[in-house]
Known about the structure:
Elements: H1 28-39, H2 43-60, H3 63-76, H4 93-105, H5 107-119, H6 127-140, H7 143-166, H8 173-188, H9 192-205, H10 230-253, H11 256-262, H12 269-279, H13 284-294, H14 305-317, H15 327-333, H16 340-350, E1 361-364, E2 367-370, H17 371-414
Antiparallel strand pairs: 1-2
Helix pairs in contact: 1-7, 1-10, 2-6, 2-7, 3-5, 4-7, 5-6, 7-8, 7-9, 7-10, 8-10, 15-16
Amino acid sequence: xxxxxxxxxxxxxxxxxxxxxxxxxxxxxxxxxxxxxxxxxxxxxxxxxxxxxxxxxxxxxxxxxxxxxxxxxxxxxxxxxxxxxxxxxxxxxxxxxxxxxxxxxxxxxxxxxxxxxxxxxxxxxxxxxxxxxxxxxxxxxxxxxxxxxxxxxxxxxxxxxxxxxxxxxxxxxxxxxxxxxxxxxxxxxxxxxxxxxxxxxxxxxxxxxxxxxxxxxxxxxxxxxxxxxxxxxxxxxxxxxxxxxxxxxxxxxxxxxxxxxxxxxxxxxxxxxxxxxxxxxxxxxxxxxxxxxxxxxxxxxxxxxxxxxxxxxxxxxxxxxxxxxxxxxxxxxxxxxxxxxxxxxxxxxxxxxxxxxxxxxxxxxxxxxxxxxxxxxxxxxxxxxxxxxxxxxxxxxxxxxxxxxxxxxxxxxxxxxxxxxxxxx
Length: 425
């Protein structure tokens, strides 16, 4: 285990888990996904996403319903660019945020469409469709649903810039580190009043009165928080729990120690040159020194690292030609004796679980192997295994057929009939 570096986990629904520890050290770009998925444990947010998903399926799985929705969009919001609801994906948080944005943008024509389908005055839809439309209409026209939609969308929209940053090239993640700190500060200062005013505006447009669930003396199955006003109630049961959970998760998954390690990506020449030329500051070297403290035993000569960094800066500032923009290109460019400590740092950074891509390249026994080739090998192994299983199945059937033939011959022989074995081969 002492030789392990840069654990990485990437696998759709398997990423989402409540267990923390060694097995939860996921790819860096997936950590924000885990934060958002964890924030969805607030009951109002859970209900919201479930209802949005149900309504999306209701329209997306039927061309007739989708056509009716598009007609209402043309009448109500003619300038709308989006005409179709998006599925609120469980694991892809970009789709989750975009899906909520689209749902709120098309909320008014969506309600009017469901009203027409539930009334079914022209008998254009069957009884099952009308009944489902009536049920969905009741779910999404409650004031608590509208408030939860506005609050959740505003909170999730804060994460969208960092989401796109973390899905970009690995060395661009260095630029996203400051955005993560900014997100932590903005989450704390998000105003509930703005979200509540948005909810009131939407509710008035569809003739829904401002209301909250009845507060009883004893309640076990739902939020029963006492409050002086309706706005305060939703602030206590939705906004505060959601923001608290998001803030705690951000501090946990984007802790200072992790951020220090990823700030070492400034070692990439293009990033280092931009930092030096823009700020004329040498503080980037402190980030590398802090990073090297974690892996002091891996460096061949840690005391010489400071001198190597000075030479590294001068080397690339005076370099003529194409400056490397990622770790692999940098390692190829310095394929000569020297910069031994920096080479080790770059190799360690190369093992970090940064982000996912459509084509990743690994080095195995001095040969580059891409994931596309690995997939081909897996497919080949799978086809060979299936062929072996089919052959085994055929052999088993032939064996059973041979046993039946011998049994038939023995049976006929006992009855006094002469049977030629060649006839039954």
